[in-house]
Each structure stands twice: as structure tokens, then as C-alpha cells.
UniProtKB/TrEMBL annotation:
It holds the Pfam family Sec10_HB. GO terms for cellular component: exocyst. It comes from the Eukaryota. Residues 29-137 form the Exocyst complex component Sec10 N-terminal domain. Keywords: Coiled coil, Exocytosis, Transport. Belongs to the SEC10 family. Residues 148-696 form the Exocyst complex component Sec10-like alpha-helical bundle domain. The gene is Exoc5. This is Exocyst complex component 5.
């Protein structure tokens, strides 16, 4: 522990008798001083003793340092001598090594020809045995030495190829026969080892066969035996993947070129197993059932490409992507060449069947409807003429639009787009997708939606029809919903297939033309508003009585508004709700504004037909107030403003003659033409009185 002087003195004082107040002892400073003096003397003596010891150790250390330095110098000299000896030894070793290498080269130069000569002598000896026609050597008779025999016969076979046929035909045939026998034995041995699962023996035999012509046959045998019992389940693709996974682990332990063997196995699976399986699945349905044929083709192609993706993880050589693509193409090329024709043919017949089945369920025979160009339709709209659809027809409330039909058509087209994406060549994909889209346009937009619009237009009753049912708004509502579904499929399934091709602009233009043509026909449905106004007019004519506004008993009027007003407002509210449910966006406001303006014109002209007593005028004001409440449902500022003005005009029917000028100069009537104001004042029963005429003039 570190030395602390204060603590040391405290301990010393504590140990000295009388040095502190502990234990009840009195404090004795003299005794404590005496103890301190004695202790200081002891410390001085101890310090001198330690100092002498330190000086002695320093002298000893200096002496040993000198001796150590002297010893180090001697060791350095010895090291220099040893290093010189080492250099001399190294030079000597280098000299000897040079001599040994030279001697080795000389020995090798002598030994190599000797070994070749010995080997040639052995081969000549074996060749003589074939020449004599009797194989005596143990290497040919002992089956356990088949490896050595194979090496010899392979060399003899190469030598025999160089010999002239006329002189050595017999021996050449014998060597060839033995070559073939050994080759067969090796292949048989390899087959047996594979069946026993002896990987080391298989590897050994394969290494020997590598130099034989029958090596490829050995690989074929291996591939054949690998597949025995591998395809027992119904899923040939899963079996193939499992087989390749298992062989991939084994083939590297057996063959020196595992990637080639595995590639050959995969090629055999594709060209034999898969091609046969695909043919069995597709050929019969190709001519009889287009729907099942397309589904199976898509499924088989997808499963084949998925299998190819799994096989990509194996080492199959440098360009395995191209290798696998060629294998897939070899299986499906005959089916993919005319795929799009089959797809279009099926889609056309299937779509026609879906539509026909729907119309048959409605007991409806489709009418032949002539279609003009968009500009022709626009011109008719501009001139407010009717379409040449012949006489009005009664659709009995049927819109001839079906969500189920639309879903079925879109589902068929969606599946067609998916198959097109998978089965089309990348260069043909945009073109094929456009053809499928054209089928969808033809059957969904033209044959179904457009036909329903045409039929709906033809079913719009004339404006003077009684109890007319306005089903065209239901057609508009359903057509709007259906087109949203059509647009969603366009964006979700067609756009990804054509987004980077010139077909994109063509598809967008086609879609734009469809929308424009449908919108023109929907605009032509504005005649529906004429029917609505006609219905209102019919209600007013039937329900409004002249006595409503000129009652016989002015003091006994108990109603708040007329029965005609109640029925018209009820009818209008239903139609406004129907329009809101049938349309969306700005179309709602546009149609409601048109209806509101016509509604106002009808009420304005209707009020002009009657004469009003004071109480009748009050009732007219109540009616117009109710009409104004109804106009609020339109949520169109212009319509509400028109009815506000009309309500102000009705005040002219009841205001006192003295106040007419003041009312006419009010905020709502000040900007109106004086003739309009005059026409309303003339409706008063008291107009002919000189006083009223004088005040208004």
C-alpha cells in the first residue's frame, strides 16, 4: 500500500501510552514527544542502514553489467564466426545441389527412353500374344486386373489403328474384339457398382472408361439407371426436380466432368419424359376442347419454366440459361407457333356464347343496330335530332346489361392476358395483347354496352307519353359501373404487356374512341329529360285545376299547397336521386342543371296559364316555395337562383297595388325585363281595375 505520513503518525500516537484520550487515559505530551524523538532516531538509523545496502547493490550491479557487456561482445564474435561458416556451408550445398540436378537430368535422359523401351517391350510382348492368337499373360486372364488390362488394350488399340490392314487385319480384329469385350466388362462393372451404390468403384471404373470410346455409353447407362423408379408419382415435374437434386450431389463424386453428365441427364428428362408427358396432355384436347387445351398448355409451360428455374442453381456449363431455354422451346414450339390463333378463336367463341346465353335467358332476340361514325353522332346531338332507330320499343324495364356477363367476359380476358404474357414470344407480346384487347372491346364494349345503350335510346318514350318509365338512367348507371371495371382491367393487365411498345398509343387511342362514342350516345340520352318534363307536364295538366288559384270561397282555403305541386315535387325528387345514382363526376351537375332549367321553364309557363285571386296568389306562392325546396335538392346555384326569382315574381300576384312599384324595384326583380313583370301582374283578377293599371304603369 502507498505510504501516507499522516496515517503513520496517527497510528504511532495511538500505540503510545498517553498519546491519546482513548481508554480513559489522560493525554501526556511529554511522553508522546519522547516517543516521537526515539522513533525519529530509529528511522535515521534504519535509513543509514538501507542507504549502505543500496550503495552495495549499485556497485554489484555495475560490476555485473560490465561482465555482461563483455560476455555479449564475446557472443557477437562467436556469432560472426558461425555466420561465416554457415555461408561457406550454403555455398557448398548449392554446389552439390547443382551437381545432383545435373546428374538427375542425365539419369532422366537415360531412364525415360529406358522406361519407354520397357513399356514398348511389354506392349510388343502383349501384341505377340494377340499375333499368336493365345493370351497367356496374367493381366488378361485374371479378372481382378481388369484395370491394367484396360490400360494395355487401350494402348494396343491405338497402335493397331496405325498398322496396315492387309498384313495385320487378323490381329487388328482380335485387339478390337478384346477392346470391345473389356469395354463391355467395364460398363457392366460400372452398372453393378451403381446398383450396389458403391461410389468409389463407380468413380474408379469411370476414370478407366474415360479413355474408351464407350465412355458416352457409360454415361447413358448411368442416366438410365438414375431414372429407374424416379417417376412413380403423378407430378412428373416434382419428380424431375428431386431426381436432379439427388444426382447433382452424386455426379461430382463419380465423373471427372460432372456438369456435362448432369446436363445430359436434364436433356434426356426434357426430351423423353417431359415431351412425352406434354404430348399426352395436349394432343387429344388440341382439336376437341380449346378451353382445356389452353389451360393445360399454360399450366404445363408454367410448370416447365418453374422446373427450369430450379435447375438454374446447378452447374450445367457456361451458358445454362440458353441451354434450358432451347430444351423448353423444343418441347413447346409446335404448340406456341399458333397459340395466339387458338386463343383468339376460343375467346371469340366463348365471349359470343356468354352473351348469347344471357340474351336467351331474357328471351331477347338481338336487334340489328346500324352504327354511324362519331362525327355523325355529334352532328345529330348538335342538331338535337333523334337517332334513326326506328319506332320506340318497350324494353319492359330491362337494361340488357349484366354484371355477371361482364365479370365472365373480363375473367376470360384476364386469363387470356395471363396466358399471352407467359406463352407469347417477347417480340410478339404487344401485338398479341392488342388482339386480345380488341376481342374485349368487340364483345364487352360494342356487343354488350353499346348495344344496351342503343336499345335504351330506342326505348326512350316520347315527351308526351303518359306514365313513361325512364329506364335509360338505369342503363347509364350500369354502363358507368361496367366501364370502370373495363378501365381497371386495361390498367392492371393490358398496360404491363404493352407499356414499352408502339402498341401502347394504338390501345390508348382505341380506348379513347370507345369512351368518346359511348359518351356521345349517353349525351343523346338527354331526351330522357324531355320525357321527365313531359311527365311533369302531364301531372300538372291532370291535377291542377283553375279553381286552385281562384277559389270560390276566399275565406275558406284550408290547403298549404296544391295537389299538383305535391305530386310534381315527389316525382322530381325521385328523378334527381335516380340521376345521382346513375352518374358520377361532373356529369351529375351537368344533367341536373339541364333538368333544373327545364323544370323552371315548365313551372314558369304553367303559372302563366291561370288567373289569380288574392288567396289564389298566396297559394301560388306556397306552391313555388315548395318547388324551390325541391330545387335545393339539385344543389345547383343557377337552378336555385331561378326559383328564387320565380318566387319573387309570384309576390306580384298578392302585393297591394300601392306597393307594386316598390316590389318591382326590389333586389331580385330590378334586373328583369319589364314585360316579364307586366305579364305576371296581368294574371291578377283585379288587373283591369283602373287603380292597378295606373299604379303599374
Amino acid at each position: 500500500e502507498p505510504f501516507v505520513a499522516d496515517e503513520y503518525i496517527e497510528r504511532l500516537a495511538w500505540r503510545t501510552p498517553g498519546g491519546g484520550s482513548r481508554g480513559g487515559e489522560a493525554f501526556d505530551p511529554k511522553r508522546l514527544l519522547e516517543e516521537f524523538v526515539n522513533h525519529i532516531q530509529e528511522l535515521q538509523v534504519m535509513d543509514e542502514r538501507i542507504q549502505r545496502k543500496v550503495e552495495k547493490l549499485e556497485q554489484q550491479c555495475q560490476k555485473e553489467a560490465k561482465e555482461f557487456a563483455k560476455k555479449v561482445q564475446e557472443l557477437q564474435k562467436s556469432n560472426q564466426v558461425a555466420f561465416q561458416h554457415f555461408q561457406e556451408l550454403d555455398e557448398h550445398i548449392s554446389y552439390v545441389a547443382t551437381k545432383v540436378c545435373h546428374l538427375g537430368d542425365q539419369l532422366e535422359g537415360v531412364n525415360t527412353p529406358r522406361q519407354r523401351a520397357v513399356e514398348a517391350q511389354k506392349l510388343m510382348k502383349y501384341f505377340n500374344e494377340f499375333l499368336d492368337g493365345e493370351l497367356k499373360s496374367d493381366v488378361f486372364t485374371n479378372s481382378e486386373k481388369i484395370k491394367e488390362a484396360a490400360d494395355i488394350i487401350q494402348k494396343l488399340h491405338l497402335i493397331a489403328q496405325e498398322l496396315p490392314f492387309d498384313r495385320f487385319s487378323e490381329v487388328k480384329s482380335k485387339i478390337a474384339s478384346k477392346y470391345h469385350d473389356l469395354e463391355c466388362q467395364l460398363i457392366q462393372e460400372f452398372t453393378s457398382a451403381q446398383r450396389r451404390g458403391e461410389i468409389s468403384r463407380m468413380r474408379e471404373v469411370a476414370a478407366v472408361l474415360l479413355h474408351f470410346k464407350g465412355y458416352s455409353h457409360c454415361v447413358d447407362v448411368y442416366i438410365k439407371q438414375c431414372q429407374e423408379g424416379a417417376f412413380l408419382r403423378n407430378d412428373v415435374f416434382e419428380d424431375a426436380a428431386i431426381l436432379c437434386q439427388r444426382v447433382n450431389k452424386q455426379v461430382g463424386e463419380v465423373f471427372s466432368n460432372p456438369e456435362t453428365v448432369l446436363a445430359k441427364l436434364i436433356q434426356n428428362i426434357f426430351e423423353v419424359k417431359l415431351q412425352s408427358y406434354v404430348k399426352d396432355q395436349l394432343e387429344e384436347q388440341r382439336k376437341s376442347d380449346a378451353e382445356q387445351y389452353l389451360k393445360n398448355l399454360y399450366d404445363l409451360y408454367t410448370r416447365t419454366t418453374n422446373l427450369s428455374s430450379k435447375l438454374m442453381e446447378f452447374n450445367l456449363g457456361t451458358d445454362k440459361q440458353t441451354f434450358l431455354s432451347k430444351l423448353i422451346k423444343s418441347i413447346f414450339i409446335s404448340y406456341l407457333e399458333n397459340y395466339i390463333e387458338v386463343e383468339i378463336g376460343y375467346l371469340k367463341s366463348r365471349s359470343a356464347m356468354i352473351l348469347q346465353r344471357y340474351y336467351d335467358s331474357k328471351n331477347h332476340q338481338k336487334r340489328s343496330i346500324g352504327t354511324g361514325g362519331i362525327q355523325d353522332l355529334k352532328e345529330r346531338i348538335r342538331q338535337r335530332t333523334n337517332l334513326p332507330l326506328g319506332p320506340s320499343i318497350d324494353t319492359h324495364g330491362e337494361t340488357f346489361l349484366s354484371q355477371e356477363v361482364v365479370v365472365n367476359l373480363l375473367q376470360e380476358t384476364k386469363q387470356a392476358f395471363e396466358r399471352c404474357h407467359r406463352l407469347s414470344d417477347p417480340s410478339d407480346l404487344p401485338k398479341n395483347a392488342f388482339r386480345i384487347f380488341s376481342m374485349l372491346v368487340e364483345f364487352l364494349c360494342t356487343e354488350h354496352i353499346d348495344y344496351a345503350l342503343e336499345t335504351g335510346l330506342a326505348g326512350i318514350p316520347s315527351s308526351d307519353s303518359k306514365n313513361a318509365n325512364l329506364y335509360f338512367l338505369d342503363v347509364v348507371h350500369q354502363a358507368n359501373t361496367i366501364f370502370h371495371l373495363f378501365d381497371k382491367q386495361f390498367n392492371d393487365h393490358l398496360m404491363p404487356l404493352i407499356s414499352s411498345s408502339p402498341k401502347l398509343s394504338e390501345c390508348l387511342q382505341k380506348k379513347k374512341d370507345i369512351i368518346e362514342q359511348m359518351e356521345v350516345k349517353l349525351d343523346m340520352g338527354i331526351d330522357t329529360l324531355n320525357c321527365m318534363i313531359g311527365q311533369m307536364k302531364h301531372i300538372l295538366t291532370a291535377e291542377q285545376k283553375k279553381t286552385d288559384f281562384k277559389p270560390e270561397d276566399e275565406n275558406n282555403v284550408l290547403i298549404q299547397y296544391t295537389n299538383a305541386c305535391v305530386k310534381v315535387c315527389g316525382y322530381v325528387r325521385k328523378q334527381v336521386e335516380k340521376i345521382r345514382n346513375s352518374m358520377d363526376g361532373k356529369n351529375v351537375d351537368t344533367v341536373l342543371m339541364e333538368l333544373g332549367v327545364r323544370f323552371h321553364r315548365l313551372i314558369y309557363e304553367h303559372l302563366q296559364q291561370y288567373s289569380y285571386s288574392c288567396m289564389g296568389g298566396m297559394l301560388a306562392i306556397c306552391d313555388v316555395a315548395e318547388y324551390r325546396k325541391c330545387a335545393k335538392d339539385f344543389k345547383i346555384a343557377l337552378v336555385l337562383q331561378l326559383f328564387d326569382t320565380l318566387h319573387a315574381l309570384c309576390n306580384l300576384l298578392v302585393v297591394a297595388p300601392d306597393n307594386l312599384k316598390q316590389v318591382c324595384s326590389g333586389e331580385q326583380l330590378a334586373n328583369l325585363d319589364k314585360n316579364i313583370l307586366h305579364s305576371f301582374v296581368q294574371l291578377r283578377v283585379d288587373y283591369r281595375s283602373a287603380r292597378l293599371a295606373r299604379h303599374f304603369s
